[in-house]
Amino acid sequence: RSIALTAVIFVIATSANEESVTLPSFLRVCHQSDPKLNECIKEAVQKIKPLLADGLPEFDIPSLEPLHISEILIDHGAGAVALKSTYTDIKVYGPSQFVLKSVKIDLKKDRVRLKLWLPHLRVVSQYSMNGRMLMMPISGKGESCGNYSNIDVTVTLQGQRITKHGDVYFNIKDFYVDFVLGHATIKLENLFNGDKHLGDTMNSFLNDNWQNVAKEIKPVLEDNVAKIFKKMANRIFSKYPLNVILPD
User: Fold this and answer.
1) This prediction's pTM
2) Is 139 exposed, middle or buried (0-12, 13-18, 19+ CB in 10 A)?
3) More confident: 85 or 1
4) pLDDT tens-digit series, residues 88-127
């Protein structure tokens, strides 16, 4: 999901007029007056998609295959899941296989909505956790590996216009992510201080009940993902004034 989002932001933020910016030859320029602006952005993303796996450092786009995330904290203190957990050195494999289903840009409302689909993501990290999962006690520290398939994602960006040094810039005020998983499996190493029997039992329990687990922690994960990519998007948008981002 992240690589598609970054691609759309990159295309929008660099679709400037040629007098202001020398554009790379691989980038298709889109104009806000184009009645098929949404289609233009979508086609431009498809064109640069093969380049995104290695990243584009000149535009603050990191390597996205795998995508590296330094840390995610989850502090879920209510309901069937009452859990404090930390994930570090996170590597996400498979985002380059995204399919961008639709792009909808509303320039009057400063809003962007994306729909995309991913066939598979593999997420490897170091974890530590303590608490309850579906009312079952759980604790551990070690490697975590999750496999997620058939993922539908909707991303909504609500922007605002800010003035800096006499120029108007686009800034993302609100960033929302909603995802639906087709299936998920997870393996947590070294649960319960390395007790293999308890660890295997808990992993089986989590995988048998993955839908309930996902339902409980989904809002927290969506919020964490949104914060990460809101920051990345605003770094990109801050490079160009609004009248340069999308030429008339």
Assistant:
1) 0.83
2) middle
3) 85
4) 999 999 988 889 999 999 989 999 999 999 999 999 999 9
108: left (phi over 0), alpha (psi -120 to 50) or beta: alpha
> What's the total number of domains in the chain?
1
Give me the amino acid identity at 31: H
Q: How far is CA 160 from CA 70, 175, 234, 242, in A?
A: 28, 12, 11, 11
Q: With the CA atoms of 202, 206, 207 and 211 taken in that order, what torsion angle do they form, in degrees rounded to the nearest 10? A: 170
For residue 155, pLDDT beyond 90: yes
Q: Read off the tokens for 36.
A: 């098929």
Residue 35 belongs to domain with CATH number: 3.15.10.30
What is the DSSP code (8-state) at residue 156?
E
Is 48:27 a contact under the CB 8 Å cutoff? yes
Domain that holds residue 30: 2-245
End-to-end CA gap in the chain: 29
What letter does residue 28 receive in the DSSP assignment?
Answer: P
pLDDT tens-place string over residues 221-230: 888 888 888 8
